[in-house]
Design brief:
The protein is α/β, with parallel strands linked by helices. The chain has helices spanning about 20-35, 40, 55-65, 75, 100-110, 115-120, 135-145, 175-180, 190-205, 230-240, 265-275, 290-305, 310-315, 335-340, 340-345, 360-370, 375-385; strands at about 45-50, 65, 90, 95, 125-130, 150-155, 185, 215, 240-245, 250-260, 280-285, 320-330, 345-350.
């Protein structure tokens, strides 16, 4: 099927207030839905009973729900007040599922194969609560095995969804993103990162040679957004897997490395540590998956005689001292980032989540699981003492 042209840039939500990546995702799709170009017409969304709580509501209100027959909005018929429009018709671009995550991945597989099976390209997007990715792993695996192309949004994710307890909090899903072939996984912290990743993802889904599906792990935690302009270099680094939010001084002895929602804690800890460790850096990893793959590819090339091969993460870490330490933190399993120790031949102190969460405030759960500002500072102190 012909390639669907992706706009030069996606809409960027404008807000002076802190915003979450899940909220920004919904706003981006809502703005896309206002258009009437081929790009907007080829997007199909689907969700297992969490359409509104994963921020697809605005998109659905503008583009409608698919059904082979015209069906009236039962809520309006029964005079039930609802901001959501549940009328269904053949032109609708959202497929509403019941609580059946396995069916979600079967649907995404079918939609993602429309180009090769029917000669009509679709751009499928599926949303679900991130911990429930595990409910449909078999269908997800075979969807990727068949080379189906789709965008998967796992949100909310991690213990950052603090009040809802362990049943709704994911732990190992970043590792699923790391090991699943045919799926490129990202965990953006900021809205501009999300926009660039989604833009790249729509193109990646259509790349016949090197493309595949895309998995974004998002959260409901609102973060302060950095005041910056998106440069070509920053865009390239975001897609490659990471960039320095605060570059280290040459031969710095310490760097904090973070992904996703805990970036706020990492920023606070980094500001504090500069008093004792001047020149320490703060590295944001937008995709542990792509950064790992690139590093793995580079060392294999060197092992086969191409000694000049370098990885993106290796070049980023070059300014650090040879015996510098890395303190990594993520709202997920710490193994997601612990491989950076091997990648840079440096000591790594990995913080993350290894046990089921509880109900509570974000501040309390971060403290209990050791991923808050104080835990990061303690890990930095241990790293410097053991140098």
């Amino acid at each position: 099927a012909a390639t669907i042209a992706v706009p030069a840039s996606l809409p960027k939500p404008e807000t002076e207030k802190p915003i979450s990546t899940q909220d920004a995702f919904g706003r981006i799709l809502f703005d896309i839905a206002a258009g009437d170009d081929e790009f907007a017409r080829r997007i199909v969304t689907t969700s297992p009973d969490v359409t509104v709580s994963t921020n697809l509501g605005g998109w659905v209100n503008r583009r409608g729900i698919f059904d082979r027959h015209q069906r009236e909005d039962i809520f309006r018929e029964e005079k039930v007040v609802s901001a959501q429009r549940w009328a269904m018709h053949p032109e609708g671009q959202h497929i509403e599922l019941g609580i059946a995550e396995n069916n979600l991945f079967l649907t995404l597989a079918a939609l993602g194969l429309s180009s090769s099976l029917f000669g009509e390209r679709l751009l499928p997007i599926g949303t679900l609560y991130d911990p429930f990715v595990s409910r449909g792993l078999d269908a997800l695996n075979y969807a990727c095995y068949q080379d189906a192309r789709f965008m998967l949004i796992g949100t909310p994710s991690g213990i950052t969804l603090a009040p809802e307890g362990g049943a709704h909090q994911s732990i190992g899903t970043p590792l699923i993103g790391l090991f699943q072939d045919g799926l490129s996984a990202f965990e953006p912290a900021f809205v501009d990162e999300l926009g660039e990743i989604m833009h790249w993802g729509f193109g990646h889904m259509q790349d016949e040679e090197d493309g595949g599906s895309v998995y974004l792990r998002l959260t409901t935690r609102a973060l302060e957004q950095p005041a910056r302009q998106m440069s070509p270099e920053l865009r390239q680094q975001i897609i490659a897997g990471g960039y320095w939010l605060h570059p280290p001084q040459p031969d710095a002895e310490l760097a904090i490395v973070c992904s996703g929602a805990v970036t706020a804690e990492a920023i606070a800890a980094h500001a504090d540590i500069l008093e004792d460790v001047p020149g320490a850096g703060l590295l944001i990893v937008t995709s542990p998956d792509l950064a790992y793959r690139d590093w793995n590819r580079a060392w294999r090339q060197r092992a086969s005689g191409r000694y000049e091969a370098r990885s993106h993460i290796g070049r980023l870490l070059d300014p650090l001292a040879a015996d510098a330490a890395l303190v990594t933190v993520i709202d997920g399993h710490p193994a997601t980032l612990s491989w950076l120790g091997s990648a840079s031949r440096r000591r790594v102190f990995s913080l993350g989540v290894e046990t089921f969460g509880q109900s509570g405030d974000i501040e309390d759960l971060y403290r209990i699981h050791g991923i808050d500002r104080n835990a990061i500072l303690n890990a930095c102190a241990a790293a410097c003492l053991n140098r």
